[in-house]
Amino acid sequence: MTAPEPGSHPALELDDAVHQKTRLALLTVLDEAGRADFPYLKRVLGLTDGNLGRHLDFLAQQGLIELTKGYEGRRPRTWAAILPKGREALAAEMKLLAALLARFNDRVPGSPPETP
């Protein structure tokens, strides 16, 4: 096996905006649901109001999700919906994770990685 180029490992291509576990979970849930309200996201992911709000704001600022505020009856509600850019970022992240998993699974169990 030849030595890989410095800085060429697929793990280095993971997107920090998406890869953080809470944001990855949010994008995954929104990809499955299309749109979800704040209480649902809070409940399904076990997050606090502040933590959820901070991650939703971050994803919205990155253009990955859209936040909509409105009312359900008399109660104020915030809904989050994944945008096409968010779906693309999630798909790219999952493709990289799949490549990393394939590299891991291709090694013989219990053997150390080859050295250059």
Question: What can you tell me about this protein's structure?
Answer:
The protein has one domain (14-104): Arc Repressor Mutant, subunit A (Orthogonal Bundle), CATH 1.10.10.10. Helices cover 53% and strands 16% of the residues. The chain contains five helices and three strands, in the order H-H-E-H-H-E-E-H. Strands 1-3-2 form a three-stranded antiparallel beta sheet. The model has no long low-confidence stretch (mean pLDDT 88).
The chain-level structural class is alpha+beta
Number of domains: 1
Give the CATH superfamily: Winged helix-like DNA-binding domain superfamily/Winged helix DNA-binding domain
Work out the oligomeric state of the chains in this entry. Answer: single chain
- Beta percentage is 15-25%
- Report the average pLDDT across residues: 88
Taking the sheet with the most strands, its summary is:
3 strands, antiparallel
Helicity, in percent?
40-55%
Q: What's the level 1 CATH class?
A: Mainly Alpha
Strand order of the largest sheet: 1-3-2
The helix-strand sequence is: HHEHHEEH
Query: Which spans have pLDDT < 50 for at least 5 consecutive residues?
Result: none
In CATH, the topology is named Arc Repressor Mutant, subunit A
**What is the annotated CATH architecture?**
Orthogonal Bundle
**Global outline:** elongated
| Rg measurement, Å | 18 Å
Q: What is the distance, rounded to the nearest whole angstrom, between the alpha carbons of the first and last residues? A: 7 Å
Count the strands?
3
Counted by DSSP, the helix tally is 5
